[in-house]
Amino acid sequence: MAGPSKRAGERTRSVHGPSPAMGPLSTPLVFSATFAFPSLEAMNAEQQKGPDSAYYQRVGNPTVAACERRLADLEGAERSLLFSSGVAATAAIFLSYLASGDRVAAMRECYGGTLQQLEYGREHFGWRLTLLSAGDPGGWERAIEPGTKIVHVESPTNPVLRVIDLRRAAALAHARGALLTVDGTFGPPVVQKPLALGADLVMHSATKYLGGHSDLLAGVVSGSQPLMEPLAKARRTFGATLDPMSAWHLERGLKTLPLRMDAIHRNAMSLAQRLEAHPAIERVSYPGLASHPQHALAREQMQGFGGVVAVVVRGGGDGARTFIEALRVFSHAPSLGGVESLASLPAYTSHVYMTASERAAAGIDDGMVRLAVGVEDEADLWADLEHALSKVRVGVA
Ligand SMILES: *Cc1c(COP(=O)(O)O)cnc(C)c1O
After folding, report:
1. Which one of 254, 273, 291 terminates a domain?
2. Structure pTM?
């Protein structure tokens, strides 16, 4: 371990946490909804500690808090808070910082569940929504009205992997008096650090890369202590706390986050390059490719490019279906970020709620297949893709 004067590297801190503890190497799993005290004073003192307390589980739990400290350390944040899902994490941000009638600007390319929350807020609380286009960042300056409370962006975006210039977005938001909040699910802490680029809060669906094994549902928000204070209140008020069992599994997953992201990135990069050269593929979207419109920006603000590769298969929706149903190593399933490779059809699943013209404007063709690359042997993944693509070519001919 590095001495006190030198901050340990990311792999070391992923394994050991911010401050290596004596005693058990694995965080004790505390299953206790409530805690006992020798006096009222002792109970009140514990109660004051909020999310770091062992007082009542909806407020704080030691297993959950240990995982939060590890996350905050990896994110470069003063404080992280865990929620029962990614959408619960996003909801806590909006409920904490939008009063009734307030304006929020969000990218129309944001996660569907995020847009549904903003729509819910419009109906129930009179929130006013400005939609920003990821493809037209030049228009944001005009679009974001003074008095806007939150500018909420996602980078890279799902499924076409647009990269948002987070430094510029932060400057724009701050010039309007707004907070910049970032959904960084597609780029977890070892890949990008939005807070270091000027974001005020960053959230992740920890269900994806952070957990990494497709076996738990969780969300996390990180930021400065003062900005996180209202989120702790929203969490205990609405009750979307993460349970200790999931927090323990999540913390175990974090120990291999850098290793997994390395393996995933190497596989995704190699497959994206091979797919780009394949005759049955019309187009590949991956920030690591020189052909990606924001490749230079991605290189500047990311370390590695994540594991999602979007391809457009020749033969439209039929070609994409033929392809995905012929895959054997990639599983046909929603979600991403696990050790196993998954494939999905955005036009028919995550983005089926859009009209065909909205999908076309967003660059989501019927023939698009979203590949969420895992850590398997690259040779096996490529053989699987090549075999499935050979079926498409037969279909086209
Ligand atoms: C999955 C996902 C969410 C929602 O997270 P859940 O854990 O499913 O609630 C939010 N944003 C992005 C980008 C996601 O991929």
Report:
1. 254
2. 0.96
